[in-house]
Specification:
This protein has one helix and nine strands; from the N terminus they run E-E-E-H-E-E-E-E-E-E. The chain is mainly beta.
Amino acid sequence: MLQPYLIIAPTKKMGRGVFTTEPIDKGTVIEISPVIVLPEKDRSVIDQTLLHDYIFEWDPGTKSSAMALGYIPIYNHSYTANCEYEMDFDEQTITITTMRDIKKGEELFINYNGDWNDGKKVWFDVQR
């Protein structure tokens, strides 16, 4: 399920992102997308490709990862995101829900840490 008012468009600093062409109320489910679950043995191969930046850590008990379908790989990161994602390991889906009212034309962000307002540095924002 993908709301028809979501679009992918260029951003000034992050390449592409997901935007809305309509206002969205807080608490709205805007996307539910399936994932392709990758077993632990495939992770070392994926980590050597560009896909490394787009996969999600999946079911912690299995050390698997997942490639989300739909627009989910295109949502950019923010430490104070306006959307949150939730993983359903049984259904193998990721759901995106708005965390506040969203204005028409606004970019939609998720926090790659999992919690929409988690300030812990993510892998690409850590000084190396």
